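F.,

This is the one I mentioned.
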């Protein structure tokens, strides 16, 4: 029985650490860019868009081009955030590729 108790204790510690890491990740901000910095998007750690900056040079483009630049900057930020999140979770748990919203089953 001791082994099972130890396993539960360790699992609870990992769960607590995961909660802490998840809270810290929510505070992270990443910047995505596109069009050679014509558009910049800031995402928070929980994938909420905080801001969009469209440079004056980009404003001379057609609307469809601006939309494409915004989408590309958002995608860039999202990929950077996935990488950052994965790195932080790996540091905390030693387990690669855990999803940000991972929940322990108990």
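My design for it:
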């Amino acid at each position: 029985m001791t082994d099972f108790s130890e396993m539960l204790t360790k699992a609870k510690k990992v769960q607590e650490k995961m909660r802490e890491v998840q809270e810290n990740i929510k505070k992270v901000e990443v910047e995505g860019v596109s069009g050679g910095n014509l558009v910049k998007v800031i995402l928070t750690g929980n994938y909420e868009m905080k801001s969009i900056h469209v440079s004056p040079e980009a404003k001379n483009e057609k609307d469809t081009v601006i939309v494409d630049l915004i989408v590309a900057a958002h995608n860039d930020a999202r990929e950077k955030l996935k990488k950052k999140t994965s790195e932080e979770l790996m540091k905390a748990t030693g387990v690669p590729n855990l999803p940000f919203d991972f929940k322990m089953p108990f």
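The two ends are 18 Å apart (CA to CA).

Talk soon.
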